[in-house]
Amino acid sequence: VMGYSKKTTNRNPGSQMKRKKSEYGIQLAEKQKVKFIYGILEKQFHDYYEKAAAAPGKTGDNLLITVERRLDNVVYRMGFAMTRRQARQLVSHAHFTVNGKKVNIPSYQVKAGDVIEVRESSRSSAKFAKLTGPEAPVVALPAWLNRETGSLKGVVAKLPERSDIDYEVAEHLIVELYSK
Prior knowledge:
By secondary structure, this protein is an alpha+beta fold. It has helices at residues 23-38, 42-54, 59-68, 71-77, 84-92, 126-129, 171-178, and strands at 96-98, 101-102, 115-118, 145-147, 153-156. The model has no long low-confidence stretch (mean pLDDT 92).
């Protein structure tokens, strides 16, 4: 599905059979999907899993909430970047402050009440200038984030919940994969 080439072989021509994915294959695909959405590599993702498993509550929910709380994801969700990849770059180039302090770590975990703002020195840059004013793109904010229209400042109203995560993911499969 993700970037695999369609190999054509002449073994068994005309067969319509598609091999059923193994349980492992299904679990792996689910994990890869979440890693791919957020641009997280295996080691860090596994660390997130370990922390999620150690925390109270459902491991799967904890894991998804943790990745959702990453600063690069929040910057993307607030509409300060067009993609998570761009958000990650803008964060690592120190274009944002959290509660007035410069943060350039894409994996920084935001907390409820955090104020995320485009740095004064970055505001004049073209990519941020076009986020305010009449031409500003309209962003559908998730319930746990607030941003004043036309401002370069957003607030983490509360921590995200499982229900705030808006893409299809069967997180129990990821938990099963890691708890093997």
